From TrEMBL, chain A:
Subcellular location: Cell membrane
Transmembrane segment boundaries: 12-31, 37-56, 63-83, 95-116
Protein's name in the database: CidA/LrgA family protein
Keywords: Cell membrane, Membrane, Transmembrane, Transmembrane helix
Bilayer topology annotation: Multi-pass membrane protein
GO cellular component, one term: plasma membrane
Major site of localization recorded for this protein: membrane
Entry annotated with the keyword rRNA-binding: no
Family annotation (InterPro entries): LrgA/CidA
Automatic annotation (TrEMBL), chain B:
Major localization listed first in the record, in broad terms: membrane
A Pfam family matched in the record: LrgB
Originating organism: Pseudomonas soli
PANTHER family attached to this UniProt entry: INNER MEMBRANE PROTEIN, PUTATIVE SEROTONIN TRANSPORTER
Entry protein name: LrgB family protein
One of the record's GO cellular component terms: membrane
Membrane topology designation: Multi-pass membrane protein
GO MF terms, alphabetically ordered: hydrolase activity
Amino acid sequence: MNPALLKKTLRLLAELTVLLALFLIGGQLAAWLGWPIPGGVMGLALLLALFATGLLKPATLQLAAGWLMAEMLLFFIPALMSLLDYGSLLRSEGWRILLVIALSTLLVMVVTAVTVEMVCRWRLRHEP
Amino acid sequence: MSLEPMPLFWLALTLGAYLGSRWLYRRSGRYLLSPLILVPALLLAVAVPLHTAYTEYARNTHWLMGVLGPVTVAFAVPIWQQRALLARHWPALLVGMLAGSVASIGSSWALAHLLALDDAVSLSLLPRSITTPFAMPVAQDLGGVPELTAVFVMFTGVLGAMFGGILLRWLPLRTPLARGALFGVGAHGAGVSRAQEVGREEGSVAGLVMVLTGLLNLLAAPLLVMLV
């Protein structure tokens, strides 16, 4: 392995360890406080607090954060394979499910875009 | 069929299919070859003839889903980097995310009942427009099946990325904020990729609202539990 790649890999692993640690600490914290919030979300809040206080810079974790988000698909592929246990469900309800998803997605997109556009135009008219 | 002699078969196939499909997609740019579509299709094409059960597939691959926890933590980076955008436009984005989420949950619920879908399916459909790391825990809270939700989230992404481009031609949207929010709230990760193709600002907006909409839904889940 060439030195540059080795260095980048070690860097990625170190950054991933920090994110994993925040996830685990977040889980512990949520359990300790008795809050019904997943460890990942508590970890996210902790990380934002670290950024805000300047103890950590986003650039420090950029490599691992970018990598995790870019490869996120890989991490939920196993869940998609649950389809293996739902063959009969898909045969009986598959088209209806797809129809719900399609219509609802269209509606969400139109509602969101039109709402944001209207608020933006309203603010443009009411600002000096 | 059990593949006892090859305990890591499914893990190896999953990783291999993912890397191969990612390479193919980058080279060809064809949407049908994107890992979102090709990998599950390929895995199912192997697993269905072998009569593999989900538990058997998941035995050595379920830990991959555990990485979604650290992914959630990593979402702090785009939120922090886009804080200037958020500070300037939070009223429009917040109103848009709330309206979009209400439209998503309300219409999924109404349509599922209208079409007489199974209870477990209906509940699993409710969080389908937010990104998977948030959608799965919300499904759990609501009493749905998180794995089914992941499947519905995927279909939402595939369809949403397709619809988004068409809607942009129909809707008279003048602001990059509205164009970005359309993709981020409506089609999560797949939408963010499409929004990045539309424009730089659209991509940033989509990425930011994708994460914030997920957070908003997750924090509102206990409230939703009381309603359903």
